[in-house]
Amino acid sequence: MSLMKWLNRRLCFLKIFTKRSLHAKESKNNEAGKFKASIQKLPRNFQEVLERYRNPETGQIAVTPIVNALRENGLFSLDDPRLRPFFKKLSLDEMELSNDDYAAKEQFSKSRFMEVDTFIQSIERGYGLVTRALRGELTIPNWQKFTEAIGRIFTYGKKFDQGQVATYIPQLARIDPKKWAVSICTIDGQTESWGDFRDPFCMQSVSKPFTYAIAIEQLGADYVHSFVGQEPSGRLFNEICLNNVFKPHNPMINAGAIVVASLLYQKEVLSTRFEYSLREFDRFAGGGRISFNNAVFLSERETADRNYALAYYMREHKCYPEKTNIREALDLYFQLCSVSTTTNSLAVMAATLANGGICPLTKDRVVCTIAVRDTLSLMLSCGMYDYSGQHAFKVGLPAKSGVSGAMIIVIPNLMGIALYSPPLDMLGNPVRGVKFAEKLVEEFKFHQYDSLVSSDCEKIDPRI
């Protein structure tokens, strides 16, 4: 081959190569232009997330680092409706999503990609949440460190095996006393759980703050408190007594809760009253696991001599609205106590109170801020039966316990905590729950007056 022919062929090759390169570059630029156009209407911060995790070669979104960041920030659950479509798109709907699931961890050790449009559509309800998680701007930024500390407190609480399971309701007497569960949920919806958190239990008296908040939302504080007081009773939770103006002392004890139940949806039949109440509980839980334990309801109703005595004693002193059906009021009260849930869902309910009445998972305003303020005030002063004063002094946080072993703690503007341990102390509070709460404020700046203590205090503030 002559030199001239070789040069001509070489020149042709270079022209073709250059043309293809220019075409590829032009195509790449066109793709980039289309990408920018497709995300133009999205929030600016979320656009930056897409640009950061977009593969320039394929145009797809690298979802592996996003999923890992969500997990590290406590946002790895199918219970969260904001992220459920995203996880389902990743074919994880059949997997149990938790930090203890090694299968999930192994699956996400490999690179996963998703088309831009698919990613945007699946994450539509969580633009802001995902952006804040990736930027470390959630309520508790160092989630891993915080949950490790809570895990240690959970283990600490497990060693306390004192107390007795409630026996005056036969169904509760059969509960396994070894059960121990803790769940937490922040006002951003960061969640984590330990122990028997999947096991359902009846709320019992833990339902009372939510019933009271619903009544305030519906009827107003003035009307509700024309029938029930606001003071600690200083008596046992089921004692037959009223205050000096012949009202139940507060809505957190049996007498007050029976009266509050009589106020709910007064014009409706009993079945509808319970249906509507259960619907509101479901809103508090963000669509979580809320159900009804009929066996406990029947068991409680059959052995409720003290509550019947209380109810008729209050009728004698005209504690109810006119024409109140006492039997229906009691049945609704028993039904509300027999609502069944798990610590996972109960923590979301508590977090809704911590978030001023807005569910962290759905952003649904369940009750107004006044209802939340009044509910938390009464939980702090009256929520732990005749231990309420000591709890307010030592722990300084609104809480409510129940004879099933359930307990909630609300840290306003931060999180809700749900605990479950059936053995109770002499005052009717779960032994492990009380110990957990006391240890919690020993380690963290959660007592409502910790801000007044010197900055040299060794307690941890997980918010910073």
From TrEMBL:
Keywords for this entry? ANK repeat, Hydrolase, Repeat
Record's catalysed reaction(s): L-glutamine + H2O = L-glutamate + NH4(+)
* Database matches in Pfam families: EF-hand_14, Glutaminase
- Entry superkingdom: Eukaryota
The EC number of this protein is: 3.5.1.2
Q: Which Gene3D superfamilies match?
A: 1.10.238.210, DD-peptidase/beta-lactamase superfamily
Question: GO:BP terms for this protein?
Answer: glutamate biosynthetic process; L-glutamine catabolic process
Q: What class of enzyme is it?
A: hydrolase
The record ties this protein, via HAMAP family, to: Glutaminase (MF_00313)
Protein's name according to its UniProt entry: glutaminase
Species assigned in the record: Acrobeloides nanus
